[in-house]
């Protein structure tokens, strides 16, 4: 497996120029956009994916690499089950480089209250035939070699999987191109071009592309782009710090987490470490705009959220980021080709300490690489995957809330069917955009 290399350091693979005309334009080169392009191309449509920086330059290469059913929102669960089947197929097509392996996921409990939360979620897994089960403390200890934490039990899904994000998504992009998709990097979409209120094309920094369908899968940048076109979504982003250890003896082949530490075995023999629940939040205009919508989540998670008075320059919700721009001039998307936040050094140090406490025989791990990413999230921690009612031809796929990598292949298939007018194969009511404006009471996803 290749070492983690931030996509800021990689050469442009797909320089363009883009064609003057296509059927569908996809905004965003993360896994959602890439897999949407893959499935649209398989359907025989002409599709152009425009990425302002590099394919997988942001969160799609910076995530934990988990592919999990465990603890998912009930509406997401059948979709991630489909995603696992697609991942299996992708691994057969792309080979071992994806790093895909069904090594299981463990959710670890330090209290009976946490075990009760796992028990409350278990019927959702059973309803969909997932192999999730609850473990006693002794059974949990038997799965984790040398662990010193006295967990009271765990929730275990053996069929959950892992993959290597910074290798997998560029490989999948190459697969989409092989199927006929066109990818253009360093090509920000500045605006949607409308005619009689409908999509007629997009204006990019490399020129206009005529099309009748646009998919916005811009991750942390989606809200900024959509608001400029009169489409408001209550999306915010949090900074997640992650680190990779040098190779270590295997303590668990899969992924596991409690409230302090999340870890995943990597194909190179090391572990990817992340805080179990802590993250950084930078306050900007959208934070104030959506405060009321997010209050329930803030009350629940304020102890694990580290607040910062303002976002660094160039962040989507920075105070200095323009909210309006002319399509014939550079946009904020060109100003920040790749959102590359610095990791929180205190969190990284705490991760090393937590790992050493958990596995004292291994001690404080030496780090191989560290990074951070911006996770696009929604108030109820489930995404928006829907058509924009005010702009015919515009489809939104964003707010994956940290779930995008694992579930991405299935959402790509679903979005391709939505764009072509075919049934999505799942109940998409939970993911509708109108849930924030139609008077519905928001139902937060499982806090697992």
Which percent range describes the beta-strand content? 15-25%
Q: Estimate the helix proportion, in percent.
A: 25-40%
CATH topology: FAD/NAD(P)-binding domain
CATH-defined superfamily: FAD/NAD(P)-binding domain
Number of self-contained structural domains: 1
Which regions are unreliable across 5 or more consecutive residues at pLDDT < 50?
none
How many extended strands? 21
Major sheet attributes: 8 strands, mixed
User: How does CATH name the architecture?
Assistant: 3-Layer(bba) Sandwich
Coarse morphology: globular
How many H/I helices?
12
Average pLDDT works out at 94
Structural class: alpha/beta
Side by side, the strands of the main sheet go: 5-6-4-14-15-16-13-19
Keywords:
six-stranded mixed β-sheet, globular, alpha/beta, 448 residues, FAD/NAD(P)-binding domain, eight-stranded mixed β-sheet, 12 helices
List the topology elements.
Blueprint: E1 24-27, H1 31-42, E2 47-50, H2 59-62, E3 66-67, H3 77-94, E4 105-109, H4 112-127, E5 133-136, H5 137-143, E6 153-157, E7 161-162, H6 165-178, E8 182-184, E9 189-195, E10 198-204, E11 207-210, E12 213-216, H7 222-227, E13 236-245, E14 255-257, E15 261-265, E16 271-275, E17 279-282, H8 285-289, H9 291-301, E18 305-308, H10 332-335, H11 345-358, E19 367-377, E20 384-387, E21 394-398, H12 404-419
Parallel strand pairs: 1-2, 1-12, 2-8, 4-14, 12-21, 17-18
Antiparallel strand pairs: 3-7, 4-6, 5-6, 9-10, 10-11, 13-16, 13-19, 14-15, 15-16, 20-21
